[in-house]
Amino acid sequence: MTDTGRPAGQPPAGGRILVLIDGSRTSYGALEAAADIAGKRDADILGVFVEELNLLRSAGYGFSREVGSASGISRPLDPEILQRRMRRLADHARAALAGAVKQHGGRAALSVARGRVIDEVLALAGPDDLLVLGRAGWSSPAGARLGSTARGLIQQSPGQVLLWCEQKLPSPNRVVVFLNDHDEANHRATLAAAEISRHYHQPVTIILGNDGEPAADQLDAIRQDLDVLGAGTRLRIISDTDPVSIARMLREERASQLVISRRCALFDEPGAEHLLAALNLPVTVTP
Amino acid sequence: MTLPTPLTPDQVYHRCPLDQLDFSTTDSLEDLELPCGQERVLRALEFGASMQADGFNLFVLGPAGAGKHELVERFLARHADQQPVPSDWCHVHNFEFPDRPRAIRLAAGEGRQLKKDMNDLSGELRTAIPAAFESEEYQARLQELQEEMTKRQHQGLYDIQEEANANNIAMITTPAGFTFAPMRNGEVIDPEEYKKFSDEEKELIESKVEELQKKLQQNIQQIPRLRKEVRERVHALNEEMVQLTLGGPIGELREKWQHLPEVVEHLDAIREDVVEHAEAFEDTGNGPPTGLLGRYRINLLVDNSETTGAPVIYEDLPNHQHLTGQIEHRARQGTLYTDFTLIKGGAVHRANGGYLIIDARRILSQPMAWESLKRILFSSEIRIESLERLYGLASTISLQPEPIPVTVKVVLLGDRILYYLLSHYDPDFLDLFKVEADFEDDLNRDDDSYGLYARMIATMARHLKCRPLGRDAVARLIEQASRLAADQRKLTAHDRVLRDLISEADHWANKAGMATIGVDQVQQAIDEREFRASRIRERSREQIARGIVMIATEGETVGQVNGLSVLKLGASMFGQPTRITATARPGKAQVVDIEREAKLGGPIHSKAVMILSRFLASHYAGEGELSLSASLAFEQSYGGVEGDSASVAETCVLLSAISRLPLRQSLAVTGSMNQHGEVQAVGGVNEKIEGFFDVCREAGKVHGQGVILPASNVEHLMLNSDVRKAIADGDFSIYPVSHINQAIELLTGMEAGEPDENGEFPEASFNRAVANRLFQFAEVSKKQDDSEGSIDSNGGAGRD
């Protein structure tokens, strides 16, 4: 582990921001977002760089070759070249982390580990930590909307996960939280949305996905949450919860971020893939 | 020979007969649309303006102030009024070659309409296109397209991954791509463990890995094609949206402008361009860039919507830019840029289909302007090019607008000398300016012309917003016009002088509180003009009066006569006498022209002296020998002498010097003479006579003085009232002579004498005295020659 700005071994005061850095462009975008949040929350950042065991092992085969994701050209995969590449990426990640912290303030550390990514991250993450990662890492240029690591961590992370992605919509100005029939999960999502709304000074829209009329007590619970969310909050109820309709509504709302609980039915496989494919905005997944 | 009779006052001044002017003031006279007496110019203008063939442009030549510009403009305005209004022209953006804006011809008035239509369209595009791109329909379809692409791309990878997993092979993402390795329970097998596998197993795995790699390679290499396909489909979608959005407005415009294929073509090009730049319109935050929309507007170069008839344009500063137009530049962040909206038309654009009036001297004094005009006329098209580019001085990005075909009739106004110089030195000139419209300097003065001339004066007075002129004032102006033409049978056609006189007379009438301009005001205007220009003349007269410049106006003197000369200073002329003296003695037959020897005499003067010396030899020496060494000089003349108008005076003074007979100093002489002694007309007679009269008056009393002038000059006399009065009183005489003998008789009071059949002049005649003296000279010379010859022969014998 490498520390930046904090003496080694000292535990973080509150929830940390864990950011997964694999050297891809998306992961550096996620790092910027994480540093911004850390600055706002006054939290520490822990960068996580994992040298994936499977990758290191696959380089050890004499016959293994690497097929370029852009060119499709196949060339031998040399373990030494790979090692060097990993080291360079780690160095770069360290420098980027230091740079981001310098800009936004706070303290940061980089954890470099070797093993399976999900295992390594889960070993570091606690329930109060916010895990920030790109929606897809190295596989994004090849068209993947949701990488396998992201998919695994959404499901298994003990705390909130922010799936970062570059936004294309001009002038977004609302935080949208999607709720369904799980009250606790709804409450957690609402609180997360309230925090984001506070940080970015943006009003919140609640989208309530429901097949029929929402139950009276459910509406009461939401109304209570509306007080937390403050003035300017908007409530919309939709019955059609297919990814395209939701994406359209998010565009209409000029959403800057979506907050959703992992217990939401939308997130059941393979729905998550479709939803994320339809959306181009950061998504916070609450437990 | 009979002595000539002195002229009567009526002979020296041609009065305007008042009965020819049947009006009381010029108010009752109608305007004269075109000046009288300029038929040649008018016919040339009529022909040149109507002639359609190439190169029949006009050059109107005449002296400055002749009223060329006003006449041409008035004539052309009337002529052009009957002709059709020419087309409008505009430049539009060329979407294919942006540096070559296209030119579109439109019927007069349509240009303004098209400009409005295109501005409206541009405004509509600004809002309608972004709205279409923002629409839910477009966004949804775009999303679907992109999704499909992603799906297809991802599906391929997913399939390979599935196939690999099914064969216990892991597909692993690396920072630069993908790799395959054998796996067990979702983990890549350690390479060390793999070594323990049987060869068959290894072979199976490796061949599978190879197969998967190939598939992956193929799959990845298809991605650019997929992307391109998506791009094309997005473009097609954009096109569809734009077509739908623009369908209405562009369709309407296409229908409206269907009679002009160029406009329809341009509208289609705009539609294509909007589709191509659909992405620029998608920026809903800032809207489409102004530069993009600016390209859909038009630059209306020539707007004839309010023109009636063909245009008549006068370009008062005919430089290259003003004639051919120019391409302006704007500075943006330190760089100069231009586009088709910055093309500015020139005078030729505005005059296209009509007439362009240019001052010849001005266009010739502007760099490149004359060459540019000729190029336009030769090629019948205008090509806008900046001067700095022509000279290669600027290298900023510029445009080459499509040339505009031009049919323009150019009317150049200039002095005659310019016309003749251009004809001589510019080989293109006569090809391009085939119609010569030569202004008359003078008009005939006859009974028919009085009425017309009076109307012309009336028109001038009205144009100048002056008071009307009374009948006698018009008569005085007509007489002055004859004086200005220096001819009793002519009237000046010089517009400017007449206008100035009318304006000045109006001024004096105003001072005098008169409602109409009377003869006194006209006379005052003439006198004042003369007085203002009289400083030099008065200085010169003063010198004569004080005896500094010696002029005798009475008595008789041998070898001395009063010649008359004219000085022109600016716009005014005045005459003054000059003393001419001669000496004579025996010698080698020659007359020394002192002026020429001193290089103060011009070639015409020298010629006149040669003529008179030949006259002398042939008239008096006959077949005998002429022995004469004579000299002629203009006394107290320091500024040079030119012209032959003194040759009669020079002959008389030389004969007086030879014969030693005195000449009357009360007479001044002017006139040129040929080898036979005939007297020929000269110029400036009025000024000369008045000059001598004034000198006589200032020297004391005018009594018995006079002027000898050529008889052919009598009809040029328009003398002032003082001289006329003196003539009427018998104090001053003007003698018209047609032969040198008449001048001799007047100057000497002796008979000149005609030779008989033997060539002998009568006894006691002046010519006999001359002949006798010349004979004596010859004798003296002969004696001298003989004595020199004997000395020579003696000397020669002595030497022998």
From TrEMBL, chain A:
<dbReference type="Pfam" id="PF00582">
    <property type="entry name" value="Usp"/>
</dbReference>
<protein>
    <submittedName>
        <fullName>Universal stress protein</fullName>
    </submittedName>
</protein>
<dbReference type="InterPro" id="IPR006016">
    <property type="entry name" value="UspA"/>
</dbReference>
<feature type="domain" description="UspA">
    <location>
        <begin position="16"/>
        <end position="163"/>
    </location>
</feature>
TrEMBL record, chain B:
<dbReference type="InterPro" id="IPR041699">
    <property type="entry name" value="AAA_32"/>
</dbReference>
<keyword id="KW-0720">Serine protease</keyword>
<comment type="similarity">
    <text>Belongs to the peptidase S16 family.</text>
</comment>
<dbReference type="InterPro" id="IPR027065">
    <property type="entry name" value="Lon_Prtase"/>
</dbReference>
<dbReference type="InterPro" id="IPR008269">
    <property type="entry name" value="Lon_proteolytic"/>
</dbReference>
<keyword id="KW-0175">Coiled coil</keyword>
<keyword id="KW-0645">Protease</keyword>
<dbReference type="InterPro" id="IPR020568">
    <property type="entry name" value="Ribosomal_Su5_D2-typ_SF"/>
</dbReference>
<dbReference type="Pfam" id="PF05362">
    <property type="entry name" value="Lon_C"/>
</dbReference>
<feature type="active site">
    <location>
        <position position="645"/>
    </location>
</feature>
<feature type="domain" description="Lon proteolytic">
    <location>
        <begin position="555"/>
        <end position="750"/>
    </location>
</feature>
<dbReference type="InterPro" id="IPR027417">
    <property type="entry name" value="P-loop_NTPase"/>
</dbReference>
<protein>
    <recommendedName>
        <fullName>endopeptidase La</fullName>
        <ecNumber>3.4.21.53</ecNumber>
    </recommendedName>
</protein>
<keyword id="KW-0378">Hydrolase</keyword>
<dbReference type="Pfam" id="PF20436">
    <property type="entry name" value="LonB_AAA-LID"/>
</dbReference>
<feature type="coiled-coil region">
    <location>
        <begin position="195"/>
        <end position="229"/>
    </location>
</feature>
<dbReference type="Pfam" id="PF13654">
    <property type="entry name" value="AAA_32"/>
</dbReference>
<feature type="region of interest" description="Disordered">
    <location>
        <begin position="780"/>
        <end position="800"/>
    </location>
</feature>
<dbReference type="InterPro" id="IPR046843">
    <property type="entry name" value="LonB_AAA-LID"/>
</dbReference>
<dbReference type="Pfam" id="PF20437">
    <property type="entry name" value="LonC_helical"/>
</dbReference>
<feature type="active site">
    <location>
        <position position="688"/>
    </location>
</feature>
<dbReference type="InterPro" id="IPR014721">
    <property type="entry name" value="Ribsml_uS5_D2-typ_fold_subgr"/>
</dbReference>
